[in-house]
Task: structure prediction
Amino acid sequence: MAMLEVKNLGISFGGLRAVNGFHITIEKNQLYGLIGPNGAGKTTVFNLLTGVYKPDAGSILLDGKDITGEKDIEISKAGIARTFQNIRLFSQMSVLDNVKVGMHNHHEYSVLAGIFHTPKYKKEEALMDEKAMELLKVFDLADMAETNASNLPYGKQRRLEIARALATDPKLLLLDEPAAGMNPKETGELMDMIRFVRDHFDMTILLIEHDMKLVSGICEKLTMLNFGEVLAEGATSEVLNNPQVITAYLGE
Amino acid sequence: MSFLNYLISGISLGSVYAIIALGYTMVYGIAKMLNFAHGDVIMVGAYVVFYSTAAGMPAIPAVLLSVVICTVLGMAIEAVAYRPLRSAASPLAVLITAIGVSYLLQNLALLFWSSNTKSFTSVVKIPALKVAGLNISGETIVTIAACILIVVGLTLFINKTKPGQAMLAVSEDKGAAQLMGINVNATIALTFAIGSGLAAIAGVLLCSAYPSLTPYTGSMPGIKAFVAAVFGGIGSIPGAMIGGILLGIIEIFGKAYISSQMADAIVFAVLIVVLLVKPTGLLGKQIQEKV
Amino acid sequence: MKKMMTKKAKQNAITYGIVIIGFLAMQLLSATGHMSSSLSGLLIPFCYYVILAVSLNLVVGVLGELSLGHAGFMCVGAFSSVFFTKCMENVITNSVIRFIIALIIGAVIAAIFGVLIGIPVLRLKGDYLAIVTLAFGEIIKNLVNVLYIGRDGNGFHFSMKDSLSLGMEPDGQVIVNGPQGITGIPKDATFAIGVILVLITLFIVLRLVDSRDGRAIQSIRDNRIAAESIGINVTKYKLMAFSVSAGLAGIGGALYAHNLSTLSATPKNFGYNMSIMILVYVVLGGIGNIRGSVIAPIVLNLVLDYFLRKMQMLGNNVVLQFLSDNRMLVYAIVLIVIMLFSWSPKMIEWRERVFHKKAKEEA
Result:
């Protein structure tokens, strides 16, 4: 069974068909790329998958479970986590707390337990601290656990956002232009890291990216989106050599 | 008093709200901020007219002087207190500062003009109109006429002139407007200038109809006019007029038929109902947050 | 990890310590006969101002929304608790026990109002939320002013018109009398209880902020869209912050009311002027800085009310006279200057430049 199976997904904004008939099938542990020119509807697809927008057509199956039209909270609980094109961290919170808040739905205790520091509170907090520090070590952020997220340099902010997404213990990780604003060296490190995340966490990853070096370097399969519709899909090299794809990118 | 009399005084009060609401709605539409001090500019405008007429100045030059002073005041407030915070990290920053400016104006007025209630002499010298048993005061006629003139004038200004088009552009997208060569700072300053000039007129009309003037005179009508702007749809000029007039009618009817003590509560209840049922107001448009 | 925990705990301990030391210092002053009557009259107000500022900071600083209706919740707490006290005046004669129950009632009813008002209001944000909370605060004040409640042999009577329409037996007693409010309130509030209430408020707010729920609330403040993406229930946590804040404001109101003999709702005590004065404390102490909300009300009131008056007695200084006569003017200027100084991007840049320069010179 595929980890993500999307059929005929669509949404309109005020008469404009932003995404139409979108489909994708991602196998477990796959590294999948979503490409296309600016305005093709890639981020809209992410917003549909994560419940920010409600689709007006189609179905989304995550690991066999129908999550079509669910709210973002339910979709997060079901196991989709994401990062954002323009980084969205909790800037006034510490790096550690950014990760701990990601575990919100996995370590629960009541408000009163939190106020009176019951044994349950202590146990859950200790567990969260431990897991969060492990994650931070993986992303080389452990020594900055107490720093405010806004004080991190750009590259580390991107990494923290991925760490936070993983803290929600997802089945599918969506990365929206993870290499945006990075130099070639940083992009190289990012590629290693994405591969590492896939292997270390046994993760299924769908990413949006414009950097073709990154896409051809790590993605196993691609879907190319143009004007809200799937123009091509398949193995990475196939799609990148598809003449239609080249035309769409370079223009007529 | 009859139903029709209440209706006319409702429209009259509502026209004042509408003129104030225009200032709110333009500033909100273009600078995306709630100018809490707008109501207090009204009070300053009324005091200027009060003192200049007391010193022997005829009504029309006094009103013009008041418009000039309020325009300068509005632009000064924008430049000193709001502009530095336009790109602040927290959206609360400029709102809290605006509250501070509101208090500053009230307390400066208290300092200069004392808390004693001044009895404002109406600047309107037109006799009352008697039609079919109704008695329509000169103030009412002038207020309603001024409101209509201002709404027509502003609509023409925004749609037909270059600075007006620049305002529309800035309200749509500040960044894009800047790239198109529009001077965003100047456009926002102009918006404040117009809004504050209108506030002066509203202050004179308000105090001509309700002649007691204190440093707090502007604050409640200011808040109610914001309610009117939200009611009509923030950012919309016809919306501000419709919202203002409806709110004036609701307030006067509430006072007359329900409870005079509860009139303010009724006005605020309208705001809450509108925001819950149709948050964009009667004529407002939906803004989607970008993810 | 251990080190970090203790760091947070240490910061909180300092905050509690400030309150306790302040209390002991006041006790020392009065034991040695140095307590002036003007200062002793400020002690209980200090307590409720701190409670109100800390609780408002939970909404403004931790949740990141501006509530201008805080005085409304204070009003609910004040009236509900005093109503209870008046009804039980002859039943529960121990003033401490009676006051404790009254405080709980004030807090719970204010918190219920917080939930009821929060459900519709919290769908909004920013300017709209601010203005709607202001509206609710004014509505509460207005409603209290037309509320008449009396009691006779047949039980309670309510009216929204006047005391005559309560239709009571001749032996009946009007408890809440419209704009006249409630009279003859027993003075159950003491400074010691006030300080304990401050400590309880701090305990609740500091611990809440540092828990799973507090992190969720802060994440909404920092980035609502990201918070939703990791499965935070935004409405639930907004409502939690709002209602806890309202409940604590209710405690502040109850303390305020039991320090008076007559309680009535005026624009001065429960209007939005009061809400804004509390906001000044929060801004002065630092938005999101709980300790600042403890210190700011005390410092502002001490400076403006007490020291200025003292200094005036020594020499008739025009400037001092001016400052103490125009307290709200000073508040307004403080508010604007602090906001410009701490939030303007240019000022932040300037501060960093100066700060870095200094650091370099020292190195």
In short: Strands of chain A lie at 4-13, 16-26, 31-35, 57-62, 65-66, 80-82, 172-176, 204-208, 221-226, 229-235.
